[in-house]
Amino acid sequence: MARSTDVRPVIKLRSTGGTGFTYVTRKNRRNDPDRLVLRKYDPVLRRHVDFREDR
């Protein structure tokens, strides 16, 4: 059975701290149709900042 990429696409989460650091993850479009915002660790700033979905 093939993995469906239209329901769970691969997205990039870019730091709002201005460092350009990114995380790569998957999201479920049915549960989160809007752009995803997660609070994660930015190793360049060495603190937690918001990461927003970048398309």
UniProtKB/TrEMBL annotation:
Pfam families per the UniProt record, alphabetical: Ribosomal_L33
Descriptive protein name: Large ribosomal subunit protein bL33
Gene behind this protein: rpmG_2
Record keywords, A-Z: Ribonucleoprotein, Ribosomal protein
NCBIfam families xref list: PRK00595.1, rpmG_bact
GO MF terms held by the record: structural constituent of ribosome
SUPFAM superfamilies reported in the protein's UniProt record: Zn-binding ribosomal proteins
Family membership: Belongs to the bacterial ribosomal protein bL33 family.
Any one cellular-component term (Gene Ontology): cytosolic large ribosomal subunit
HAMAP family with a match to the protein in the record: Ribosomal_bL33
GO BP terms: translation
Organism: Actinoplanes auranticolor
Superkingdom assignment: Bacteria
InterPro entries named among the record's database cross-references: Ribosomal_bL33, Ribosomal_bL33_CS, Ribosomal_bL33_sf, Ribosomal_zn-bd
